[in-house]
Please model this.
Amino acid sequence: MKSEPIFGKREPGKIYKKRVGAYVVISRNQKQEVILVQAPNGAYFLPGGEIEKDETHLDTIRREMLEEVGFEVFVGEFLGKAVEYFYSSHRDTYYEHPGFFYVVDHWSKLAEPTEKTNQLLWTTPEDAMLLLKRGSHRWALQKWMNE
Model:
């Protein structure tokens, strides 16, 4: 069995908080563009977020899509799982962050996002590869691009 890719490095002697997330690749115009979420600190991510207590991956994706992009989504293929180790200076916390990545087959805009602090950007997959902050998000996007 192939092990999942690991990004970042676990620093010895540091205490890591586990934060499991579910993320998606959403495209439009025959895969010419993907949507990214820009956090208030300027960093870009794939849409998605932390899995809350008792949520499935799909529950999390449905909730996060309404919060972040205002979309109802229909989730398709599972791209895979990747683990990322990082330090958040904003939260002064070290994270072990397993992420589960999916492709959205269809979506429709239902409303404006309920989270008002993020910006949204439609961009080419190639530019997204340069913008995305997390290696695990670039890995998932690259897998999608290679399909």
